[in-house]
Amino acid sequence: MDFDFSSDQQALGEAIQRIVADHRALPRTGNIVEPRTFHPATGLEAALADGGFFDIAREPGFGAVEAAILVYEAGLSPLVLETGASALIAPLLTGEALPRPVAVARLADLTRGVRFLAEARTLLVDLGDDVAVVDMAATAVAPLDGPYAYPLGKFAAVPDLAAARRLGSARVGELRRLWRLALALDIAAAMQAATDFTTDYVKQRQVFGRPVGSFQAVQHRLAADAEKCRGTYWLAMKAAWSGSALDAVLAALHAQRAIAQVNYDVHQFNGALGMTLEHALHLWTFRLRWLVGEMGGYRAQAADVAALAWPDAPRKAG
Amino acid sequence: MEFAWNESEEAYRAELHEVLSTLPADWWESYAPHGPSSPRLMEHARRFNARLAERDLIVRHWPREYGGCDASAWQQIIISEEMWSIGEPRSSLYLGTNWAGPAIMKFGTEAQKRRYLRAIAAGELLWCQGFSEPEAGTDLGNMKTRAEPDDDGYVVNGSKIWTSYAARADVMFLLARVGGKGKGGVSCFIVPMDTPGLEVRPIPGVHSRHDFHEIFFSDARLPADALLGEEGNGWQIVQAIIHYERIGAGRYEKAARALAHVVDVLKARGEFDDPVVRADCAAALAAVEAARLQTYLVIDGRAKDKAPGAETYLARWAMIQADHAVANLSSTYLPDLLVDGADGHLRAQFNSAITAGIAAGAAEVQLNMISGRHLGLPRGA
């Protein structure tokens, strides 16, 4: 066992952290943050692309753990950037550098709403018995507005995927494993960032003559949330390391189940300020609102955990 | 980054399995459900621990000079997992291997090391922990038991309460006040349980008549060399060992094995096809694995000689959640198996889960520590 990153992984993480820090400023008009539900990470995307970070999983000697580092670190930014599908799912699923951004969806999601679909250049579709790789150049997608901090889009009707490239039924399980891993990393990062942001806030904000964060009722809930963040993170990193389908779905399940409490707590502790667009909290919590239901939500992950952990043959007791 | 066991760790686990295979056939029926402090299990532990010692299995992670094999800290968590998950057949030997021994290594005199460390490695000492008092449970700094210096040692008066293992333990790790009020007045002593003036009375527990004891000290005389470390540095010793104590028991592994058993029973009853049941079991498994990884993170730091940090408290909190998640499954879906004599495996985990948030520091203390040391939140008024 060794929970430390290798020296290369450590250097990679630090390099990404520097780039994310250099490009985390929210767009402002004068001194006021522009009031948006989300802010695209245009500068961050360009800097990471220039550095070749989106191809990290295909570099010799690198793979899912290195891609996971990118997805997690970028996910901490208040600016929203698609990394999970581009840097982790697509390259490890296809071995190729597919045109970015990449959206990923189940067939039924296409007419309901998909993260990054409106701007995607490639779409990966879980057809149930196959995986379709769709070139989005000639498709029309309607953007969706809502209480979510992602650019969302949907098709008006189920698109004709007859011409789309197929990866074969054997890749369906791999798509789901990688998607769950990316989902768990996105959730771990957004929960961590929202918790960190809130922790800083309650240290400063005074109520009844004391910092909000000095009240035990606040401390205990934030402490429990902190554990959910770390537990999710380590489940995800182990899943990245192991390549196990069970590890990935366990991470996604744990992550999605944690969201409701974390989101509730951080909004409670930010009070009315957290209800405003000039305060950054929603930039993570409104991501979590979407992620909690992705891939069918925790019940779907739980069903697959049960199927993988406890297949039909009875286990030997004891 | 590496999340797999190496060959030597796997071999160690296999050796432990060989010794565990010698447990009585009625282990789950007659021993484990009554807990590691039950008289029958404690008496059996003396024979069982001797079998472990014959193969040098007890403290592989200790230095050779103290009876260990210079193995990594990972071997300590392996034996903790294997023993705790089956009901801790070592009984309270584990207090010695997990933290009393390390405390003696760090703070003890050469004579104390010679006297106690080899005996722990040989599986000869069952310990109890004299910390809590009637007015000082979680608030240890409020303890009142006093050890007054006299010419050739100390005279102890006071009482301890809710002490496991005391009726059959050989030795106690005692906290007593030598100096004034507060944490600075606390000192540590190692006290043989046959010390005159020390009386043990059982307190019937909710799960066993043998779980708890009250201990009375009436002019109990201790020699000067019973003191561990220096007078007044007891709190420092406690702080040093607390990281060992809080994650010393492999509760997540016990929960994991109980969960597997729950699923087997539910399948056999045809009740595992219910999607709600499956989802609850899956969520419990995720909680167990999150606790496991956070515990391993602490062990990883220990193996690398890193100073312990807030990870210990995060791991303990995770462990408490996992233990309760599985116990709640048992009581929700298999309540009939928790009655006396029905299923010792589930009963053992169910009984011990209730202690998870109390033993080794209340759950709320873990949250306090996470708040202060991990989040850096300001102290309350």
Automatic annotation (TrEMBL), chain A:
<dbReference type="InterPro" id="IPR036250">
    <property type="entry name" value="AcylCo_DH-like_C"/>
</dbReference>
<dbReference type="GO" id="GO:0003995">
    <property type="term" value="F:acyl-CoA dehydrogenase activity"/>
</dbReference>
<keyword id="KW-0560">Oxidoreductase</keyword>
<protein>
    <submittedName>
        <fullName>Alkylation response protein AidB-like acyl-CoA dehydrogenase</fullName>
    </submittedName>
</protein>
<feature type="domain" description="Acyl-CoA dehydrogenase/oxidase C-terminal">
    <location>
        <begin position="180"/>
        <end position="284"/>
    </location>
</feature>
<dbReference type="InterPro" id="IPR009075">
    <property type="entry name" value="AcylCo_DH/oxidase_C"/>
</dbReference>
<keyword id="KW-0274">FAD</keyword>
<dbReference type="Pfam" id="PF00441">
    <property type="entry name" value="Acyl-CoA_dh_1"/>
</dbReference>
<keyword id="KW-0285">Flavoprotein</keyword>
Automatic annotation (TrEMBL), chain B:
<dbReference type="InterPro" id="IPR052161">
    <property type="entry name" value="Mycobact_Acyl-CoA_DH"/>
</dbReference>
<dbReference type="InterPro" id="IPR037069">
    <property type="entry name" value="AcylCoA_DH/ox_N_sf"/>
</dbReference>
<dbReference type="InterPro" id="IPR013786">
    <property type="entry name" value="AcylCoA_DH/ox_N"/>
</dbReference>
<dbReference type="Pfam" id="PF02770">
    <property type="entry name" value="Acyl-CoA_dh_M"/>
</dbReference>
<protein>
    <submittedName>
        <fullName>Alkylation response protein AidB-like acyl-CoA dehydrogenase</fullName>
    </submittedName>
</protein>
<dbReference type="InterPro" id="IPR009075">
    <property type="entry name" value="AcylCo_DH/oxidase_C"/>
</dbReference>
<dbReference type="GO" id="GO:0005886">
    <property type="term" value="C:plasma membrane"/>
</dbReference>
<dbReference type="GO" id="GO:0050660">
    <property type="term" value="F:flavin adenine dinucleotide binding"/>
</dbReference>
<keyword id="KW-0285">Flavoprotein</keyword>
<keyword id="KW-0560">Oxidoreductase</keyword>
<comment type="similarity">
    <text>Belongs to the acyl-CoA dehydrogenase family.</text>
</comment>
<feature type="domain" description="Acyl-CoA dehydrogenase/oxidase C-terminal">
    <location>
        <begin position="232"/>
        <end position="372"/>
    </location>
</feature>
<dbReference type="GO" id="GO:0016627">
    <property type="term" value="F:oxidoreductase activity, acting on the CH-CH group of donors"/>
</dbReference>
<dbReference type="InterPro" id="IPR006091">
    <property type="entry name" value="Acyl-CoA_Oxase/DH_mid-dom"/>
</dbReference>
<dbReference type="Pfam" id="PF02771">
    <property type="entry name" value="Acyl-CoA_dh_N"/>
</dbReference>
<dbReference type="InterPro" id="IPR009100">
    <property type="entry name" value="AcylCoA_DH/oxidase_NM_dom_sf"/>
</dbReference>
<dbReference type="Pfam" id="PF00441">
    <property type="entry name" value="Acyl-CoA_dh_1"/>
</dbReference>
<keyword id="KW-0274">FAD</keyword>
<feature type="domain" description="Acyl-CoA dehydrogenase/oxidase N-terminal">
    <location>
        <begin position="45"/>
        <end position="124"/>
    </location>
</feature>
<dbReference type="InterPro" id="IPR046373">
    <property type="entry name" value="Acyl-CoA_Oxase/DH_mid-dom_sf"/>
</dbReference>
<dbReference type="InterPro" id="IPR036250">
    <property type="entry name" value="AcylCo_DH-like_C"/>
</dbReference>
<feature type="domain" description="Acyl-CoA oxidase/dehydrogenase middle">
    <location>
        <begin position="128"/>
        <end position="219"/>
    </location>
</feature>
